[in-house]
Amino acid sequence: MTTPDDNAPDLDTLLTTYALGECTTDERTHVEAMLHGPDGSAVSRTIEEIRALAALLKEGADDLPERSASLRRVVLAAAASAPTPRPPRSTNQWWMLGGILGLATAAMVAAMPLLMESTSSEVAMRSTPVAVTRVSLPKASAEQLTSSPKAMAQPTGPARAKEQADGQMPLGDVAGHAIVTLDAAPASPPTAAAPITSPGVWMGGFGGISEPELRRSNHDLRMATPSRERYGSITEDPTKRTPSDPLSTFSIDVDTASYANVRRFLNDGRKPPRDAVRIEELVNYFRYDDPQPKGNAPFSVTVEAAACPWRRGARLVRIGLKGRDVARDARPAGNLVFLVDVSGSMGDPNKLPLVKQALTMLVEELTENDRVAIVTYAGDAGLVLPSTSGDQKERIRAAIDSLSPGGSTHGSAGITLAYEQAAEHFISGGANRVILATDGDLNVGITDDGALVDLITAKAKGGTFLTLLGFGQGNLQDEKMEKLADNGNGMYAYIDGAREARKVLVEQLTGSTITIAKDVKIQVEFNPAVVASYRLLGYENRALANDDFRNDAKDAGEIGAGHGVTALYEIVLVGDPIRHGAEPLKYQPEPTRPTPPSLPIDEATSRELLTVKLRAKRPDGDTSELIEVPLADRGGSFEDASSDLRFAAAVAAFGMILRDSEHRGEATLPMIARIAGGALGSDPGGYRAEFLDLVRRAESAQ
């Protein structure tokens, strides 16, 4: 590329400084104009490549797989030549920066066969046609490469580099130019194919790779790319003593994102990050056979107790809420706005292409009573499809098919426009909802989490609810999306494939689009005459002050049609031995919990373990209604408990093991498999059976 100003950077260098956040205002304006132009997708991919490579250089090569020795050496060599700190830019320095990143990018492409060779014998990457790639560097940079202790030994003279039998790929120095070469004589011209992708990285096509092969070969790339995923820190609730702290108060949670995300990690052979595991979302991913509510109540309440399988002497209490089912033909008219992130980071196959597939599934379920608008956001927000009748499926599908990635992520602008569209076509008594599909990387406009929460909270007051769908890996901003859903009167699901998209948007259509109760709070009062201590499993991010239970101004969770909510408590009864895992005492009897003085309660109440209190508002109401349900323990064994309690216990114990929780007691993966295997029930959809497979995968996860 030539420019009127000979001192101006070329296109590659301009995109490099934009990706690294080092360009001037004029340069930024120029790049963002290109992102919105006809070549926006290609420009966006280049920027994402540079950012991913910069992250690799910053992190160093320690995180790369051992078998990718060639790539490690190339990255280290490029890193060794990078000037630090960055001096004021000049024409030569522009070329140096662009050249360094260009060298490493080309070397990564050349090293791709080495990365992928051992992933699958079906993908013969070493035989892939690869052309000779020559990348220029200033002479000083080449000397830095050969003299750096971090770089490998360099041959001198005109000898060109080639791949050696031991897999090494040395860099040669020819007249001040570095050369990276792979000797592969193509048997036939390369064919076009879908790009090989990894989180935030686009690599050119290696022809003829099928989707399953592509998924397998992506494993090494995912392992080699530093993750930018963000999860909110979770501090597990401690055990609380009933006499001093008899109340436990929290907001319900119908989110299921954590389970699908954990499944993604385990299917990839990796153990999920500790804070990615939210026990309540694992438990609430599954349907339980609780009864439908009676009369006009929005949900039913079921409470049961049994022996705790992972801690001898303790009891396990399950509280189950079941939202009223709404038949599809009785579903109220829907006013939906699809808010789709089409920024450059959404270009991977498991992001925007999967978003389009998921939304198309939902469109097939709509009728002439529904309306759909489509809003996108990248560098700015745009209205792709004005509000359109749900029976105009061809028009809606065409609008979805037209979506393509490119640009930065101006999430706040998209949120504002989407809620404006929802308000303009608001249906009184209908299902008014924004469905936001993103990886959560909102990096333009309002980007601070607190300010975004304030924005979404203000928009939610207009009566439009939120469904937030997370996509992709490597860049998943889970913490941010959970906060937005919590404060937007919404639910958060993670979509790791077409099957999960169908579950959320087709099988659970009414629950995902129809809210039957909002600001649902639970307060459990434990009887100190019976319960010595208790601990709530999960819901750490949903804890409420006890005084907030009756405060109708305090926001809480929403429950959709047919949705279920389960909460589990581990409790210790008065008089039971204190068991903390220590060895039995030798010189005195094992201490027991003291029995509290007599309380002024009647005989029937004295036998109750607890009372569950719930407050909830109608979807269009402002005043909560109170429900109370007591529980008297009958001392049943775990084996005699309902299949729902037993299966929920298995899932909760699985979450504790994945989190390496200090409260997991005697829980083991074989124990969990045995419990879950005996509590599958009718299992529509086979989701409980799939859980057993995940337990087996967890045994070998790294």
Q: What Rg is obtained from the alpha carbons, in whole angstroms?
A: 29 Å
Strand arrangement across the biggest beta sheet: 12-11-10-13-14-15
- What is the distance, rounded to the nearest whole angstrom, between the alpha carbons of the first and last residues? 47 Å
Structural class: alpha+beta
Using DSSP, what is the number of strands?
21
Could you say how many structural domains there are in total? 3
Report on the architecture of this protein.
The chain has a six-stranded mixed sheet with strand order 12-11-10-13-14-15, sandwiched between helices. A five-stranded antiparallel sheet has the order 6-17-19-9-8, with helices on one face. Strands 7, 16, 18, 20 and 21 form a five-stranded antiparallel sheet that branches. The protein is 33% helix and 20% strand. With 702 residues, it is an alpha+beta fold. Helix 12 (411-424) runs parallel beside helix 13. Residues 1-6, 60-97, 109-221 and 593-599 have low confidence and may be disordered. The relative contact order is 0.12. The protein has 20 helices and 21 strands. It has three domains: 11-187, no CATH class; 240-326 and 516-580 and 603-700, no CATH class; 328-512, Rossmann fold (3-Layer(aba) Sandwich).
How would you summarize this macromolecular structure in one to three sentences?
The protein is of the alpha+beta class and 702 residues long.
Please tag this protein with its features.
702 residues; alpha+beta; Rossmann fold; 6-stranded mixed sheet; 5-stranded antiparallel sheet; 33% helix; 20% strand; globular
